Fold this protein.
Amino acid sequence: MPGSSNPVRRAALKAALAMREVTDLGADTSWAIVGHTLEMTLNARREARASRAPTVPRTPGRLMSAEPVRIAGEDSPLVGARISFTEAELELRFLRDDLVRLTWEPGELPLPWALAAETEPYRPERPVSFQQDEPGAPCRLASNALAVDVDVDGGVRISDVAGALLRRELPPLRRGATVTSRFRLRPGERLAGLGEQASTVDLRGSKHRLWNRDPGGAWGPGQDPLYCGIPVLVGLHTSGNVLTFYENTYEAQVTAGEGALGAGLPVQVDVAFAGGVLRHYVTTGSLPHVMDRYSELTGRPYMPPRWALGYHQCKWGYRCEADIREVAAGFAADAVPLSAVHLDIDYMDGYRVFSVDHTRYPDLSGLSDDLKERGTHLVAIIDPAVKADPSYDVYADGVRDEHFLLDEHGKVVLGVVWPGKAAFPDFTDARTRQWWSGWYRRLLDSGVSGIWHDMNEPTSITLWGDRTIPPGTRHSAEGRGGDHRECHNVYGLLMDRAGWEAMAEFDGNRRPFLLSRSGWAGLQRWAWNWTGDVESSWEGLRQQVPTAIGLGLSGVPYTGSDIGGFSGIPDAELYLRWLEMSVFMPFCRTHSVLGSPNREPWRFAEPFRSAINRLIRLRYRLLPYLYTLAYHAHERGHPLVRPLSWPDEGSGSSLTWPVDDAYLLGDDLLIAPLTVAGARSRQVTFPRGRWYHWRALPRPGDGGTGEGDDGHWTGDQIELVEGGRTVTLEAPLGQPVVLVRAGAILPLDDGWDAGAVDAPTAPAGALTTGHEPHLAAWHCFPDASGRAEGTSYDDAGDGYGPSRVDRLSLSDDRSVLAWERAGEYRLPGRVRVVVHECAASRARADGNEVGVRVDGSDQHPRAVVEGPAFRRLELELLR
């Protein structure tokens, strides 16, 4: 259903999807959905009545005493203080010089599900200083980087070493079980984060519910909540950014100055949790630095297999092995690479997880082997819901050994999902996680390379209201006991942990690939994410950019959306524009709802078919760059998709902060998607500096052949653009708007460069299992002084063997390219170097003559060298 995403159209789309579900699932399951809807409606009314009970909000009261906290013993370094108030206690602890944890009690401390390791060993570089003039007076703790002042009423001020105020926190409030953190934004401060949100990047003036939820088959701008809320807020300001992580898994209501914008009033942010203790971590610095600190705390992303960064194809409705083989054959016939085919719920026997319908998929292992001959992997979906069937071994085993969630009376809780009535494993129990992990071997033994977790908010289908299980459902909570109010938001995270550990244990020579719809803080340790059932509309397409940026700033580096939108029928233009964006997103997959037309490339008429094929091949040309960004994410926790203000610091950032329809892919590529029907140009706001407008694919009007009137290739055109301003750029269909930061060296695979003068080296679209580059290439885009530099990472594409990091630097006159490397992974047998804005007559690699040619245009020549690996490449320039 293309077109507007207005609420009436979205409601009609959801109704149509609900009818399709009813038709597909049958009468028994449909009646079960009705019954579960009524049960959840009654639960919601009871919860609402309980929340309306009159309570008086309480502040911490007055400061009574403050005692320094040391690591161990009186002679050990001071790291914080415990400050007592008449109504509360504050434990303030420095974990690093620029990372402080604040815990307001009373309240039950959170279980450390989000944390990568115990925080007790964390400490600042030097002891913290503590100052209080007299008992009951305000106190100050200071490290080398931050000073924290605690007022007598419980207000907290965090400043840098120069005294600039970074965060002003008002005294927290407690109203019954609800605890609320309140802070004021600095003048001009922006606010981002909260995981997956259908909003602008800047959250000011909005209100959000953090309660992971399936929105019901289709979502678009303004939908709240979504599948993967994360209580991380990033304040963006010229005097320093501030990241805050709330370690509280209960439902939260976040109000970011709603109604205050434009009124001249300070913007106040309220974060109210429905239970638990108020614990939060605060760190400051540049965006790269705060993301490094946050991922140190909650875990670095794992290094994915290289094939995961390729192109994936899926559809709810690939019902049998013949469908999958037809898809693979179609890609092969068009010589288009394909890294993965995803199996949706159709492969299962009656939607029973960990089962295979052997009538429709008689030889899953043989299918996997055949696909891998062309480098294509199988990814299989797994839902948490286990069909309530006593003859089904997973269910019978789970009931016998008490692995399923129970209600207040000790009975197994049954929700309704695709198999009908179903039970839900208790992933907050380590014993159950281990049990669940054991079942993955069935699929992995059959040749499945990757796992896709869906419906793991967890979702239990209803016709309206919350699509989950009752709030009183009992959880183990690692043995201490808890309920669904506390454990709902981490359910998907802990399922992902169980799945990742299963894959890691199954084959220690392969890295897991796990895709998850839901999660929480720390998700990056276990899984990738995608944005779920987005509607097929231009508004839905545009929303993907700020949603991906927000996820990245919340610690989730790998995300993407279903190309063309999951729910609806995109026309060819909308699908193509969506693909133009998605080839520059971390996760690149086409997927669609049951009953919608198939979206394989050859289903589209020309010129769209050829444009789609070229864009998919471009994805593989970018693979070395994407893989290098994955390495940086693994090392530092930096997201692949970044706001334009990254890493542009200082006053220049204010120009790019409002931009949420363009993004950086790494430091060096700026992507500006087209999100308006019929548009053939768009405005682009640039960060400061020089940029190259890089037309990586053929210009329009060449008949799709890539050749102009003179027979020369017209791809890889560049045009210099000065940054720090807004410029209008042409954007013909099939030509994504891509800009390269001047001074960058991009690692590419020119084996997929269909615009090369010589024939492409990639054989008919085939891939190796490890997706090794066919022709490693470094494209140098000199800055105004002629310099450029860059890094690239390479290894076998999977496993834990040797690796190599390359660092390349171009001299200030473009005449010398130095290649430094670290690591034992083998060098490529042949490499290509392209120096843009450069013409050369001769080239020597480590003193040996090598061939060089000049192509491009007279205004924008480029020197191209191919030969063996080198340490020093010298160019004799044409003057």
Summary: The CA atoms of residues 194 and 645 lie 18 Å apart. Residues 27-51 form the longest helix (25 residues).
